[in-house]
Amino acid sequence: MKWTYKEIGMYQESKEYVDSLIIPMNPISFGAQMKQFSSMHEFMGILMMEVEKQLKGRLLLMPGLTYWSEGQERADLIEIWKLKLLEADFKHVFWITSDSEWKKYEEQLPGSLLWIPSIPLEHLEEGQARQMMNDQVRQMLDMLTQSWNK
Amino acid sequence: MSKRNVSRRQFLNYTLTGVGGFMAAGILMPMVRFAIDPVLKASASGGFIATSQKVSELTAEPIRVDYTFDQIDGWYESQVTNTAWVYKADDGNIVALSPVCKHLGCTVAWNTDKEHPEQFFCPCHMGRYEKSGVNVPGTPPSKPLDVYETQVKDGILYLGLLKPHKGA
C-alpha cells in the first residue's frame, strides 16, 4: 500500500495482513553527484512502484527517505527511525537503496538492508530499459518473498 | 389596402412570441444538455485495448499478456502497463483474468506454488484460485478474480472492461 489517504485507510483496516514496511532511501547533493543521484532517485521510484503493485496487500511503502549524501549524520537518522518503528508493529522492515554507503551501517539498521545497484535508464532504449527493470523487480520480489518464508 | 389580414397588434404579438421563444430555447438548451450530460458522453471506458497477443498462439495454459494504455489519474497522465492471464477454455472461448488478488490487491501468478500446481497463487497471504478464477475456499480471498471482456480483431486479442466473475 502506498502513502496516500485512500491506501493508508485501507492499511488501517487490514493491519493484521500488512506486516512489512518498505523504506526507499535516496541521497541528494548539489555537488558532482547531483546527476547520478537524480538518476538513482528515478530508478528507485520506478522500482518501488512496481514492487508495490505486485505485493500491495502485504507491505506499506513509505515515501522515499531523502537525505544529504554528505553532512548529514546517518547514525542519527537510524536512531530516530529505531525509536519510531517501535510505535508501529511491523514484523519485517526493508531498507532499499542504491547508495552503497549504507552497507557500512547495515548492522545498525533495524531490519534488512537491500542494496540494489541503480541502472542508468537514461542511456538505454525503451524496450531494453523495460526488460532490465523487469529483471530488477523480479529479483526484489524474490528477496522479499524469501524473507517472508524464512 | 383592402386586405389587412395582419393587424399591427397581431404583428407585434407574433414577433414577440417568436423572439421570446428563441430566447427561452437559448436559456433552456444548455441547462438540458447539462442535466443529461452523462448520456451524451461517448463511453470512453468501453473501448477495447489491443494487446500484442496473437489469438492463434493461445493454449489451455494461462499466459501473461501485457497491454499498455494512457491513464489519466487526477493530475497525472501516465502510460500504464497492466497484465491479464489469458487462456483458451475447453469450450474454445478465450478467458482473460485480472491478476489483482481480491483479498488486498497483490498480483497473482499462475502455477507458482509448488504445493498447489495448476492454480493462481498470491504470494502475499497464500491466496489461491482455480484456473477458472474461482477462489479456493479456506484461503484469504473471498471472491473470484475479475474477468476482462475480450474481443478478437484480425487475429489479435483485445481486452475491454473488467467485470466481476460470473461464477460468483
Number of domains of chain B: 2
Strand-pairing-aware structural class of chain A: alpha/beta
Major β-sheet profile of chain B: 3 strands, antiparallel
Number of strand segments of chain A? 5
Low-confidence stretches of chain B: none
**How much is the radius of gyration of chain A in Å?**
16 Å
**CATH level-1 class of the largest domain in chain B:** Mainly Beta
Oligomeric form: heterodimer
CATH fold title of chain A: Rossmann fold
Structural class of chain B: alpha+beta
Pfam families (chain A): DUF2487 (PF10673)
Protein name (chain A): DUF2487 domain-containing protein
InterPro entries (chain A): DUF2487 (IPR019615)
GO molecular function, one term (chain B): oxidoreductase activity, acting on paired donors, with incorporation or reduction of molecular oxygen
What order do the helices and strands come in, and which of them pair?
The complex is a heterodimer of chains A (150) and B (168).
Chain A: H1 5-13, E1 20-28, H2 34-54, E2 59-61, E3 65-68, H3 74-85, E4 92-97, E5 112-115, H4 126-149
Parallel strand pairs in A: 1-2, 1-3, 1-4, 4-5
Chain B: H1 8-35, H2 37-40, E1 49-54, E2 63-73, E3 76-88, E4 94-97, E5 109-110, E6 120-122, E7 127-129, E8 147-153, E9 156-163
Antiparallel strand pairs in B: 1-9, 2-3, 3-4, 5-6, 6-7, 8-9
